[in-house]
């Protein structure tokens, strides 16, 4: 079961950011190109992408709609096979989905006919073959409680709000304890308040796991990327999208949503990301 630590023990200085670079590599994307074959020929979505993500790192992928963020994520999850190049996750070449990589989609992908509890239990049951029923129920209870859904555990997904469904999807992904968590615009459809509290929940869960989980997330939201990530990968527009720039977020943790917006480093990276994403327009335009 998860080792609980006091969040204050996890306070770090800006210099600690650089320690990440000494960690082992969790995900190694090597010269990945993805081309989809269709009736009108081949469409190259992403081209020659290389990216290394360290263990325990939080990386945000950002870029305009259709630039290939989900495609790249899906090469890590194993749901898309690169046309050339390869992805190595936890030291193994990715050949398909696996329990070491949990994914949360924007549309939650919960089974509508199963309760909150069952949705999580099914996933736990399919991954932890060696655990007995009592142990599996304990895991489910633990993660439902962690996302504050215990009073709602018998409800069906259709009886939940968007934010609650999202918490179920996150609890399910954490319950199977993947070392790599892939979040594809997980908070995109949420209102600002729910989104803000989900950011805190996610970081709490990451802290509770001693910051050992590697998280890659797709987002359109610059503030979200800066608040959560250690680095932000900005993609060029497609077709044949490449990485435009990797921006390090050298802000100490824990980060306070309100305070960091006044931090000169926050202002600098915010400006940089805005220019990278909207460099065609100036304020006069
Ligand atoms: N299975 C597929 N077959 C053909 N083309 C595809 C397929 N999946 C994605 N594409 C194309 O690849 C490009 C990248 O799509 P992708 O979904 O990765 O973009 P995205 O950056 O995640 O977009 P958004 O931000 O809008 O979700 C798009 O032009 C899309 O139409």
From TrEMBL:
<protein>
    <submittedName>
        <fullName>ABC transporter ATP-binding protein</fullName>
    </submittedName>
</protein>
<feature type="domain" description="ABC transporter">
    <location>
        <begin position="27"/>
        <end position="262"/>
    </location>
</feature>
<keyword id="KW-1003">Cell membrane</keyword>
<keyword id="KW-0472">Membrane</keyword>
<dbReference type="InterPro" id="IPR003593">
    <property type="entry name" value="AAA+_ATPase"/>
</dbReference>
<dbReference type="GO" id="GO:0005524">
    <property type="term" value="F:ATP binding"/>
</dbReference>
<keyword id="KW-0547">Nucleotide-binding</keyword>
<dbReference type="InterPro" id="IPR017871">
    <property type="entry name" value="ABC_transporter-like_CS"/>
</dbReference>
<dbReference type="InterPro" id="IPR003439">
    <property type="entry name" value="ABC_transporter-like_ATP-bd"/>
</dbReference>
<keyword id="KW-0813">Transport</keyword>
<keyword id="KW-0067">ATP-binding</keyword>
<dbReference type="InterPro" id="IPR005890">
    <property type="entry name" value="NO3_transporter_ATP-bd-like"/>
</dbReference>
<dbReference type="InterPro" id="IPR050166">
    <property type="entry name" value="ABC_transporter_ATP-bind"/>
</dbReference>
<dbReference type="InterPro" id="IPR027417">
    <property type="entry name" value="P-loop_NTPase"/>
</dbReference>
<dbReference type="Pfam" id="PF00005">
    <property type="entry name" value="ABC_tran"/>
</dbReference>
């Amino acid at each position: 079961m998860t080792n609980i630590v006091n969040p204050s023990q996890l306070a770090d200085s800006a210099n600690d950011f650089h320690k990440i670079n000494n960690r082992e590599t969790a995900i190694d994307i090597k010269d990945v190109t993805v081309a989809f074959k269709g009736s009108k020929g081949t469409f190259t979505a992403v081209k020659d992408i290389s990216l290394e993500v360290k263990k325990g790192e939080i990386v945000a992928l950002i870029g305009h709609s259709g630039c290939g963020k989900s495609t790249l994520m899906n090469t890590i999850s194993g749901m898309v096979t690169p046309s050339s190049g390869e992805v190595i996750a936890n030291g193994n070449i990715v050949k398909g989905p696996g329990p070491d990589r949990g994914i949360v989609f924007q549309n939650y992908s919960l089974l509508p006919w199963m309760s909150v509890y069952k949705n999580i239990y099914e996933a736990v049951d399919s991954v932890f073959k060696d655990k007995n029923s009592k142990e599996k129920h304990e895991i489910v209870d633990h993660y439902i409680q962690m996302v504050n859904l215990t009073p709602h555990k018998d409800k069906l997904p259709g009886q939940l709000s968007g934010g609650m469904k999202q918490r179920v999807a996150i609890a399910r992904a954490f319950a199977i304890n993947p070392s790599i968590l892939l979040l594809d615009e997980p908070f995109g459809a949420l209102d600002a308040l729910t989104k803000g509290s989900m950011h805190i929940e996610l970081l709490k869960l990451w802290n509770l796991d001693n910051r050992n989980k590697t998280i890659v997330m797709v987002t359109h939201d610059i503030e979200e990327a800066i608040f959560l990530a250690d680095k932000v990968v900005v993609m060029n527009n497609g077709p044949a999208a490449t990485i435009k720039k990797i921006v390090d977020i050298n802000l100490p943790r824990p980060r306070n949503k309100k305070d960091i917006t006044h931090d000169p480093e926050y202002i600098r990276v915010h400006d940089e990301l805005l220019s990278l994403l909207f460099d065609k327009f100036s304020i006069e335009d």
